[in-house]
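Please, does this match?
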Amino acid sequence: MSQNLEVSKAAGALGAFVSGATLSEIASSDALFAETLDRVHEHEVIFLRDQDVPAVDFQSFARRFGEVLPHLAYETVGDAADVQILESTPENPSKIEVWHSDMTFSQTPPTYTILHGQIIPEYGGDTLWASATAAYEGLSEPMQRFVEKLTAVHDFRHGFKESLAEPGGEERLANAIAANPPVEHPVVRTHPATGRKALYVNALFTTHIKELSPLESRRVLDFLIKHTVTEEYTVRLSWAPNTVVVWDNRSTQHKPVNDFFPQHRKLHRVTIKGDRPV
C-alpha cells in the first residue's frame, strides 16, 4: 500500500475514510490515483474530508476516473461544465428519496459517481450506501443460482415519475425520455476489476423481472431490493463542507436522507461513463 494515503474502514461491509493527499495531488500522480482507485474497488465507497478546492480542480480529479457522463436533468457549473449541481431548498426539494444505483435506466450506466459537498446543513442530510456485493454473497447458494439466470428491466420514466407529473414535466424531460427507452440488465452483474458478483436491481429504476410472471416478479424483486439494503450491508456518512465521496455504482446502492429542511444543501457531482453490465 502507498505510504501517502491513510485508510480507515467506516463500516463492516463497505466504506472507508481516505486521507493524506489533496484532490490535486491525486489527480496529478499516477501512483496516488492508482492507489485511490484500488481503495474504491476494495471498499466500494470512499470519503475524503477537507478538500477545499474549486469546481475546476474537482472536475480534473473526477476526469481521472474516465469519460464523464452528462445528465440532462441537472444544471452544471459555469466554469466546469462536467460538474453537475445537486441542490435542495425548501422551494425546490430533492425528489429522490429511495435506494438506487445511478442511471441504471441507461444501456451503459456509470461506473463511478463523485460528489463534493458545497453547502451542508447544520444537521441532517446524511447519505447511506449499501454493498450489493455483500448482499449477493449473503444469499444462499440456491438463491444465488436462481437470480443469476434473471434479467431485469430499468426505466427512466419510472425513476422520474414525480418530475414528469409536475406541470410541464413531460415537455421539460422529453429529450431525456426519447434518449432513454427501457433497458434490460442482468439481475446479478460481475465487477470487471474485482470479479465479485453483485445484485443489480433497485427501487428507483427497476420495474420488473423479464423471465417471471407479474406476481413472481413483484415478490422476487421486492425481496432482492429489501435484502440489498439490510442494515449490516450499509454505511452512513454525515456530511461536512468540502467532503468528497467516490463510489462504485456497479457494486453499491445509495440513499439520501432528506431530513434537513428548511435548511439548504448543495453538492457538486460528476458521473463517469460505464459499459454494459454483464
About this structure: The chain has ten helices and 16 strands. The chain has one domain: 6-271. The longest strand covers residues 80-88.
